Amino acid sequence: MNKKAKVGLIIFIVVYFTIGIINAFYFVPKDTSEVTQGLASRWIVQISDKSAWYTRLNPLTIAMSWAIIIGLIIFAVKVGKNFKIIPDRKQSITESVFDFMYEIVESVIDDPRFVKPTFTIATTLFIYIAVSNILGGAVPGLNVSIANGSVKFTLFSDTFFAPTADLNTNLTYALMVFVISHAFAIKAKGVKGWLKSWFEPNPIMFPMNVIGELAKPISHSLRLFGNVGGGAILTFMLSYLVKYLLLPIVFWGFFGIFVGLIQALVFAMLAVAYISAQIS
Amino acid sequence: MEKTLADALIVMGKAIGAGLAMGIGAIGPGIGEGNIGAHAMDAMARQPEMVGTITTRMLLADAVAESTGIYSLLIAFLILLSL
User: Fold this and answer.
1) Do B74 and A225 count as a contact with CB atoms less than 8 A apart?
2) If you average pLDDT over residues A247-271, what whole number do you get?
3) A83 burial type by CB count under 10 A (0-12 exposed, 13-18 middle, 19+ buried)
4) Is A1 exposed, middle or buried (0-12, 13-18, 19+ CB in 10 A)?
5) Does B20 have pLDDT greater than 90?
6) Is B65:B24 a contact under the CB 8 Å cutoff?
7) A10-34, pLDDT tens digit by residue?
8) Ramachandran angles phi, psi of A44, nearest 5°
9) B11 and chain A: CB distance < 8 Å anywhere?
10) Which of A71, A266, A280, B82 could hold B63 in an S-S bridge, CB 3.0 to 4.6 Å?
């Protein structure tokens, strides 16, 4: 470790611990019910008088999703503009992630025509979900809580809101993977072969196949949602129990970095597995 | 706010339900992850040069095995906080 990295690490630790101490003194709620009250409720905006599922917006999810998308685009443009033979730090991070994912995808997908599209989908999902999980799990930031019907903003009392802690985001990606896997299956086997695959091994199994296929996106999305959302709630409750003193940082690190990265990898790997099961 | 017997019974039911959901729901993933860990250890002892690959696959299998436990955690939180 060189001197620059050491200084960076020290600054990081000092900032983290300062935030922990500030939390300990300024963000202790008066009452337990104040903490648990707004925990499961989300900030939801009605855009018209009619109450239906398509008139409700979740502003935090939208804002955080766009922030992550724009950040990733800026990063990609920055790395892609000066691509060198001798890579600098950002380029080598990008290259190692791409290399890691490409090796996995190449070993799972048999058909060489589908390796590159699958790799694109899986890597995009992995990078987006990993960034959003780490942002929502390990980076202290703006916390929005709902108390008695009014929205309250506090800085640094909790981590940012992860877009993947909202089931809408996860279900969108899971359904996307579902549709893409069937589109690839039609492309690989033809319409006839695809229709035939529903009646394998014999026609009696057709209902089981339908249920099995429909269960895939549900379990795919609920797994990520449960891990990230449950982790966020657990972190919040445990932070309250230790009065916001230093220990939240450990939970943020565990639920954000460790669980977040593993779940992002699992989501991407399951997408690859579902696609490979459909096209073979 | 006046507290009545009905409110107390509701709170009791919520607590018992959440506890049961979490406690019973954690049995399956516990057994599953234990099996995965044990067999991964066996494989690592037999082939120490495959440690890296086996660890990655083990973590993936763990994450899949714990999903039922995560569902029960979600249900427990739903019962406790929003019902």
Assistant:
1) yes
2) 78
3) exposed
4) exposed
5) yes
6) no
7) 887 787 677 767 766 766 656 666 6
8) -125, 135
9) no
10) A266
Q: Does A76 contact B at CB distance below 8 Å?
A: no
CA distances from A145 to A153, A252, B54 (A): 7, 18, 42
Q: Which of B64, B73, B82 sits opposite A230 (nearest CB)?
A: B73
pLDDT at residue A23 in the model: 65
A246 interfacial to chain B (CB closer than 8 Å) = no
CATH placement of domain B5-82 = 1.20.20.10
Where are the domains positioned within chain A? 3-43+56-279
Partner B contacted by A257 (CB < 8 A): no
Chain B residues with beta carbon closer than 8 angstroms to that of A174: none
| Chain A nearest CA to B28, separation (Å) | 16
Choose from A104, A267, A269 for mutation: most chain B CBs within 10 A: A269
Packing angle of the helix pair A115-138, A89-108 (nearest 10 deg): 130
Whether A247 shows a pLDDT value over 60: the answer reads no
Residue A58 clears pLDDT 80, i.e. is over it:
yes
- The pLDDT of residue A28 is 62
**Average confidence score pLDDT of chain A:** 81
What residue segments make up the domains of chain B, in order of their start?
A: 5-82
Contacts of A227 in chain B (CB under 8 A): 63, 70
Q: What DSSP string runs through B12-40? A: HHHHHHHHHHHHHHTHHHHHHHHHHHHHH
Model pTM? 0.82
- Please indicate whether residue B12 or residue A151 has the higher confidence score (pLDDT): B12
CA distances from A234 to A197, A210, A219, A231, B73 (A): 43, 35, 21, 5, 10
- In this complex, do A266 and B71 lie within 8 Å of one another by their Cβ atoms? no
Please indicate if any CB of chain B lies within 8 Å of the CB of A237: no
Residue entry with tokens 């009014």? A150
Q: What percent of chain B has pLDDT over 90?
A: 35
Most confident of A12-26, A110-124, A157-171, A192-206: A110-124
